[in-house]
Design brief:
Layout (H helix, E strand, L loop, with lengths): L10 E4 L3 E9 L2 E7 L9 H14 L2 H10 L1
Antiparallel strand pairs: 1-2, 2-3
Amino acid sequence: MLALTRRKGESLVLNNNIEVTILEIRGDQIKIGITAPKEVPIYRKEVYLQIEDENKAAIHPNGVEALKKLF
């Protein structure tokens, strides 16, 4: 993991097309702004993990075998 220090108003650039800006610092909370192309999905990590779990649950072992038999 790369750890960087940023102040309010400062930014990071990721992959030449995503900018993360520190908007506000209040106690132990930091408000960030993200500028990215519309096709780049952005999720809070806890939401992303829930999506992953739901996708895994949607794949039933018998369903995968049935799909294999179709091809």
